[in-house]
Design goal:
heterodimer, A: four-stranded antiparallel beta sheet, B: mainly alpha
Chain lengths: 227, 166
């Protein structure tokens, strides 16, 4: 905690009402928040004032939106999620292209919607001779998709994963092969729900049954590469 | 979107849609614009869900702050007429209490009604129309320091009024 500076605290508290109401001028806001990060007294004042403003917002009468509102919101969310996943898949596949020097790839996509993309990639990748590239969704224990795994069989083989929507933290990454053995292959850091990581493998991708990511908080993400 | 995601999103929207739309409609007051803005609010919330910190605020506070900011931006961007602050203030009065009010809400209505108008008015302008202290001062023909003092005193009185709750 920094040394007390009553003059600075007084200045910041002068700005607290505007901070709480979201109308503090930009530069002053940044400087004030920097002070508040180190001053628990000023932080308390801001929190109490923000509570009041939050309660003011709640006084406004509720009003049901027109019929179909929920469906329109969900359609918007769906569209943005789908688009982002496709864009991410494109980017990951582009990274694969760059790394796949000397190897032609037959591309298998887990998702029917991406066959068209797969066709385009296949034509491009047929320039060189091939191994396999597999993609699978990373699922949480409740079955929600929280990312993707790409596994390339070649020389070297490698695996690359992108995470979006998993609890933040460090995950231990393991392969489970068909013979039932577990291979610890590294750690992946997820921040603000997102992360990515990859590594070369010394096992055949074809022998991998699944990839598991185990977070310190107990979260487990699984991608199935078999079938 | 995975089925689990869809159910969660549905439940979330249904739970908060009246709160969000109510606030946005009050600020924007054109229903078609209010609906569009309200949809954007839920989209923003969905995209930034990972930045929501449960220790810092209730979900409703976080969501209504997004809604308030989006509504104020819409008014500015579309050059709409903002709502008359006196009309807005009357919606916050004790006479407008309804079943949705919590004990805190009822207390706040009374505390707000008990403020001198010179303190209440800038608070309403800044909270619901997003005016800065400087803009309020310019609009009301007052020194900046006077506006800031009145707002600070008004919010302190509201805070004390809420603090008196058991």
């Amino acid at each position: 905690m920094s040394a007390r500076d009553p003059a600075r605290c007084a200045e910041v508290r002068d700005l607290v009402p505007e901070l709480a109401m979201g109308v503090a001028p930009g530069e002053q806001r940044a400087a004030a928040l920097a002070h508040i990060a180190t001053c628990s007294d000023c932080r308390t004042v801001l929190e109490l004032t923000t509570d009041v403003v939050d309660e003011l917002l709640m006084l406004v009468p509720e009003h049901e939106p027109p019929a179909g509102f929920e469906a329109r919101v969900l359609a918007g969310i769906s569209a943005s999620t789908g688009l982002r996943r496709r864009v991410r898949t494109w980017l990951a596949a582009a990274a694969v292209l760059l790394a796949a020097a000397g190897g032609g790839l037959a591309v298998h996509w887990a998702d029917h919607d991406e066959r068209r993309l797969a066709g385009e990639y296949r034509r491009t990748l047929e320039v060189a001779h091939g191994s396999s590239l597999r993609a699978a969704g990373l699922l949480t224990s409740s079955g929600t998709r929280a990312g993707d795994v790409f596994a390339y069989q070649g020389d070297p083989s490698w695996v690359f994963m992108t995470i979006d929507g998993a609890p933040s933290g460090t995950y231990e990454v393991r392969l489970v092969t068909r013979d039932g053995r577990t291979h610890r292959i590294g750690e992946c850091w997820v921040q603000d729900g997102r992360g990515s990581w990859g590594t070369a493998l010394d096992v055949q991708v074809g022998s991998v049954e699944r990839i598991e990511m185990r977070g310190a908080g107990g979260a487990v993400l699984t991608a199935s590469l078999s079938g | 979107m995975a089925d689990g995601d869809q159910d969660a999103a549905s439940a979330f929207v249904r739970r908060y849609q009246a709160r969000v739309f109510g606030l946005v409609l009050t600020i924007v007051h054109t229903p078609a614009v209010a609906e569009e803005v309200s949809q954007e609010v839920f989209l923003k919330a969905w995209r930034h869900a990972s930045s929501y910190d449960a220790r810092r605020a209730r979900v409703s506070s976080w969501l209504l702050t997004i809604a308030r900011n989006a509504a104020i931006d819409a008014v500015r961007y579309r050059h709409e007429e903002p709502m008359d602050p006196d009309v807005l203030t009357s919606m916050l009065a004790p006479e407008e209490r309804d079943d949705g009010d919590t004990a805190t809400g009822l207390t706040l209505r009374d505390a707000l009604a008990g403020l001198p108008a010179e303190q209440r008015r800038p608070i309403v302008l800044m909270t619901f129309q997003g005016l800065t202290a400087r803009e309020v001062a310019s609009r009301e023909g007052l020194p900046l320091g006077t506006v800031k003092t009145r707002v600070r005193r008004g919010l302190t009185r509201l805070r004390d009024g809420l603090g008196a709750l058991p």
